[in-house]
Design goal:
The complex is a heterodimer. By secondary structure, chain A is an alpha/beta fold. Chain A is built from two helices and eleven strands. In chain A, a hairpin with a 5-residue loop joins strand 9 and strand 10. The longest helix of chain A has 15 residues. Chain B folds into two domains: about 180 residues, CheC-like (Chemotaxis protein chec, 3-Layer(aba) Sandwich), CATH 3.40.1550; about 210 residues, Chemotaxis protein chec (3-Layer(aba) Sandwich). Chain B is about 40% helix and about 30% strand. Chain B is built from eleven helices and 16 strands. The two termini of chain B are about 25 Å apart. Classes of the chains: A alpha/beta, B alpha+beta. Chains A and B meet through strand 2 and strand 4 of A and strand 11, strand 14 and helix 9 of B.
């Protein structure tokens, strides 16, 4: 888990929880987004895109899979985009997910989903990556599709509402 | 016979690496990218194995293993994968040639799968000539396991391609004693195999009581058809449950052990049970009354399930009021797994399927996720303090 997926042949690349993929062509997809996030970071000038599917906000330690967490996952993705030839100053991001699919009455304060969204906003801002699109929160699961070359994102919610970001 | 739970992680990793090597070989042969979707170790009755292969027509190869590891490996392609492979390797070939291409690919993939185990064990594993298999259910099952005594460990990987054109399953069913002997000596905190077996049987009894409660409340005849204990990397729990849409309830339970119980009906089954409880016209949305009927059913099922554990474990286990859920299976599991992943890397996923006896119209999945460390403690206590009960037939306890 956690390693970067590959893709340059224009095919569909699937990303699971605690994984990410970087590609220059094709569609990167992830499904079953509940409280998890789908984070697309892309460089439209270089024609490079990515999709990260983290489960928890912050890693707090270094012995766990980086892509499981929003903060370390974004670090890994940005490194991989950098290696692939993206210009760090051109990166933009779109975020979806962070729903409360299960209403835990005992949660004190924000749900995991809320905290994931908050962490993504903070980490992206700290890295100077502009967050240009968001479709987050609520109580529905989501499927995310990222067009790798352009960064165009489609979000399909389980209540039937589709959004283009 | 003792099983070191930590070594289950090693076994699981071996199975995953073996499956990855098989997936890479297949991608190399066909040019189609494939990836290991899930890998887990299950403890289950041999008779439940056939449910892995229901509802489809599979073909592949079976090999027997001998030496450092005794047992069987079965690799099966679904219909789409069979077509893809035959089209790539034997384009325009007659049925015999197409079948040979499946045999050949199956042969290459299973060798790659077993090599990782042999390397890890630093020993030789002899592989029999592959036998071609075709069919569904028991037709493709490891021959020696159907009549095995007691429960068996099953290593299972699901490999998928993005287009769905090249999916396969690989199963390894080692002989129990051979598996234990092959791996490192059990640590001091190892759990007797029989304990895991009894815990699994307790879970089945709990699921049967839950099923009885469904029948009592709704009048629908039900039966527990599959019951297994799976040991799964925590990140893979949502993918293990899958992307299909479900309706049901989530409960958190506290005590020893604590954890979550997720009861998921496929949509037609959810409509059937709710209709039996509150016969109203539904418009696709779940009304307050229907949600509350589903929660009440969840409550009754949970009580049946959890009480079974608490009785044998002589502990008190309380559960929260049920929360109604209606979403993709993996989306429902993600916040639960998120909570558990703070403290554990692997999960014991106890999975029971309740169905109708007949045509399978009714289907409900129970997933229990006990806290891993607490489950170990519970098993340990059961061993030390109530060892006599480990040999009790769960039927006598409930």
């Amino acid at each position: 888990m956690g390693g970067p997926g590959r893709g340059d042949g224009g095919e569909r690349i699937k990303v699971s929880i605690a994984e990410f993929a970087v590609a220059s062509a094709g569609t990167i997809t992830t499904s079953g987004l509940g409280s998890c996030l789908g984070v697309a970071i892309y460089d439209p000038d270089a024609g490079l895109g990515s999709l990260l599917h983290p489960m928890l906000p912050r890693r707090n330690g270094d012995d766990r899979p980086p892509a499981r967490f929003v903060d370390s996952g974004i670090d890994s993705v940005v490194d991989a985009l950098d290696d692939a030839g993206a210009d760090p100053s051109s990166l933009r991001a779109k975020v979806t997910g962070g729903a409360a699919v299960v209403d835990f009455g005992t949660d004190d304060g924000d749900s995991i989903g809320d905290r994931n969204v908050e962490a993504a906003r903070e980490v992206l801002a700290a890295r100077g990556i502009e967050l240009v699109g968001e479709e987050v929160g609520g109580s529905c699961g989501r499927t995310m599709r990222v067009d790798a070359a352009t960064g165009a994102v489609t979000v399909e919610r389980t209540d039937g509402v589709d959004t283009d970001l | 016979m003792q099983i070191d739970i930590d070594s289950l992680e090693t076994y699981n990793r071996l199975a995953r690496e073996g499956a990855r090597s098989a997936a890479e070989s297949l991608s190399g042969l066909t040019g189609i990218e494939t990836r290991v979707e899930v890998t887990n170790v299950s403890l289950m009755a041999p008779s439940d194995l056939e449910y892995e292969y229901l509802g489809g027509d599979f073909s592949g190869v079976r090999i027997e293993l001998d030496g450092a590891l005794d047992g069987e490996t079965v690799l099966t392609f679904d219909e789409a994968a069979r077509e893809t492979i035959a089209d790539v390797l034997a384009p325009g070939g007659d049925p015999g040639m197409r079948r040979s291409s499946i045999e050949e690919v199956g042969n290459i993939l299973t060798s790659g799968f077993i090599d990782g185990w042999a390397d890890h064990l630093d020993a030789v594993i002899d592989i029999s000539t592959p036998t071609y298999i075709e069919g569904a259910g028991t037709d493709v099952l490891p021959a020696g396991t159907a009549d095995a005594d007691g429960q068996v460990f099953v290593f299972r990987s699901r490999v998928e391609s993005a287009s769905g054109s090249l999916d396969f399953h690989i199963l390894l069913v080692p002989e129990r004693e051979s598996l234990v002997e092959a791996l490192e000596p059990a640590a001091e905190d190892a759990v007797p195999f029989e304990k895991l077996e009894v815990f699994n049987e307790m879970t089945k009894s709990g699921a049967e009581r839950a099923a009885d409660n469904v029948t009592t409340m709704t009048g629908l005849e039900t039966d527990v058809e599959v019951n297994r204990m799976r040991f799964v990397p925590i990140d893979e729990v949502p993918a293990t449950v899958g992307e299909q849409r479900y309706v049901g309830t989530v409960m958190e339970y506290t005590g020893k052990p604590s954890g979550y119980l997720v009861i998921l009906f496929d949509r037609p089954s959810a409509e059937a049970v709710v209709d039996a409880l509150v016969p109203t016209e539904t418009d696709g949305e779940w009304s307050e009354m229907e949600q509350s009927a589903m929660k009440e059913l969840g409550n009754i099922m949970t009580s049946g399930f959890i009480d079974g554990w608490a009785n044998v474990l002589e502990s008190s286990i309380d559960h929260s009021p049920p929360t109604f859920v209606s979403d993709m299976g993996s989306s429902i599991m993600s916040p639960i797994v998120g909570r558990m992943a703070r403290t554990q890397e692997y999960a014991f996923l106890l999975d029971s399927t309740i169905r109708t006896d007949g045509d399978g119209v009714f289907r409900c999945e129970l997933f229990a996720l006990p806290d891993e460390a607490e489950l170990r403690e519970v098993l340990d206590d059961l061993l030390v303090e109530r060892a006599d009960r480990t040999h009790v037939d769960p039927d006598e306890v409930f």
